[in-house]
Amino acid sequence: MKTLNLLSLLLVVFMSCKGDKSVKPDGEDQKKEEVVSIRKGSPFDINGRLKLAGTNIVNQKGAAIQLRGMSTHGLQYRGNCYNETSLNLLMHGWGIDVLRISMYIQEGGYEKDPVYFTKFVDDLVEKCYKEGVYALVDFHMLDPGDPNYNTERAKVFFEHMSKKHASKGNVIYEICNEPNNKQYEVTWPMIKNYADQIVPIIRNNDPQSIIIVGTPEHASRPDLVIGNKLAFENIMYTMHFYAADKWSANHQGRRMGYVSKAIANGVPVFVTEFGTQDGWGDGANDFVMSAKWMKFMEERKISWCNWNYSDSPLTGAAWKTGTCPNGPWSEENLKEAGKWIRTQLSTPVDNWTGNYLPWNWEYNLASGTGSGTSLTATSAVQVSESKVGTPGFLPYPAIGAARTVVAANAGAGFNLNNGVLTIGASNGAAPNKFSLYDIAGSSTLVNLSFKLSFNNSVSGTAILAIGGGDGNLFKANDAYSNSKQEGLFAAIRFLVGTNSSNAQYRYLDGSSYVHRSHDVDVFPRTSDLNFEVYCNNTGNPRVYKKDGVDYTLPAASFHMYVNGTAVKYSGSQNIASTGELLPYMPIDAFMVSGASSTGNTLNFSVSNIKIKSLIGN
């Protein structure tokens, strides 16, 4: 009888264990656990365990996806912000896909109380699992900047984390936050030495999950990993940015360039931290640059976490100071950064299909949001700039800015009629100029199309320029010149005469910038010129399709068509870029200008301006 009872008991235990889908503990405490049900329709429920395919994160169906989420503040600083009410709002109301759990090591964090902070992270991971959100466990080293300082602590922490949570499938490990040069230069080989010790510990317990490794210069240089990646599968590398930083010329464009170059060379990138302010997470928000980054990451399916979901007094925190822990978690308590990032988390909606969503931009000159139809010359320089919320003479574009400059005593100005902008060329060396910038979704590979007409005019010089960044050729009053100009990718100079328009293109060979075409003239003076320009500012050849035919566009070059005819110089369609826009930086600016037209006889028009990103083609 005792034997029968014992067998019955064992059978009950066996059946109970078989039906329990909860994650078993790591051996430290073999106590009974409750069954955890993942929220249906949640990001993790839909996508399952993630892995890498090339440089993309792919879901359980093999579709390339982008995760979007928030980072906590340091748990030792703002730990009271993460309770059931606030997290439910974040995971349900805001709809995050991933929560970055930022556990500082120094500065009163893990180093001071490993037991407390380990449990804090464990509890947040469990919450993420239950709600079907990915948990990005951030070993948040900041000071000192060398991750090797914390190797032994990391071994203990990640041994625990990877053993306890491996079977969940929703955990991503970020093993070092922001390697930096605060005490001495911290290079990629030094970071790699640290990672080569920590990754095997995680892999021993969790062979599959994604691991993210920090990069030099406060996690902003994934390009420095090229040719020296870790010898493990499912490894990604960090990029951090703060949109209002301007440490150097075209600071943000350079950082986009680092990311583009890394991805083009097979280095997967995850933006585990970014802010709409400066690098301290404070100061004025730059939502324009932040929006450019959003488009940049969306095109490339780069996953991101915003800094930060807390009530820190700095502008980078989502909530006003004093909101934590009891709220109210209401609209009135959100800072501007919080309102902005909440919108980004839901717009556009998550795309779990893996299909590339092409991004197109069109400037509607007939939209009627501008202030007038003409801008005439005076004795002073006149500048008008139009952006969303601040219209000027021209209609404002949906994204970016439109700018007109009328030179002093130019003798001519601008007229806008039925969606066509007519430019009277200045009669002096200072040009009348029309430019668009911050417009192309920050792509390194674009198709620009527009219509240009010289209106049967004669005598003068017209310039077409394409580029990006902070170059003053597009954003200020600088005139095109035969000397190096930052941000210029390509330029065509039209010498408009009595019978024809002779086109020259700008190049760099150490001795000259402009080369005259000796081919058949495809720029007639008396009819509309419909332009298509395919630009490749990457370091690799790219293929594009036109009229059903594939064309190979070499690195750092462009193809141009006028009225459907390919423009060739010296018999080649491949036209080299000028080299003044750094490789892998985005092409997001366009300009036409006119000068040196005695008596203002040069009169030309521009219309039908469109840009399409070719990323994903």
Blueprint (SSEs and pairs):
Layout: H1 2-19, H2 43-47, E1 51-53, E2 56-58, E3 64-65, E4 68-72, H3 75-78, H4 84-93, E5 98-104, H5 114-131, E6 134-140, H6 151-165, E7 171-174, H7 188-205, E8 211-213, H8 216-219, E9 235-242, H9 251-264, E10 269-275, H10 287-300, E11 304-309, H11 336-346, E12 360-363, E13 374-375, E14 382-386, E15 401-406, E16 414-417, E17 420-424, E18 432-437, E19 445-453, E20 460-467, H12 472-475, E21 488-496, E22 501-506, E23 514-516, E24 529-536, E25 542-546, E26 549-553, E27 557-562, E28 565-566, E29 575-576, E30 589-595, E31 603-613
Parallel strand pairs: 4-5, 4-11, 5-6, 6-7, 7-8, 8-9, 9-10, 10-11
Antiparallel strand pairs: 1-2, 2-3, 12-31, 13-16, 14-15, 15-18, 16-17, 17-31, 18-30, 19-24, 19-31, 20-21, 20-30, 21-22, 22-23, 24-27, 25-26, 27-28, 27-29
Helix pairs in contact: 6-7
Structure explained in plain terms:
The protein folds into 2 domains: 21-310, Glycosidases (TIM Barrel, Alpha-Beta Barrel); 361-613, Sandwich (Jelly Rolls). The protein is an alpha+beta fold and 617 residues long. A hairpin with a 2-residue loop joins β1 and β2 (56-58). The radius of gyration is 28 Å and the shape is elongated. α6 runs parallel beside α7. The strands form 5 sheets. Strands 12, 13, 16, 17, 19, 24, 27, 28, 29 and 31 form a 10-stranded antiparallel sheet that branches. It has an 8-stranded parallel beta barrel with strand order 4-5-6-7-8-9-10-11, surrounded by 5 helices.
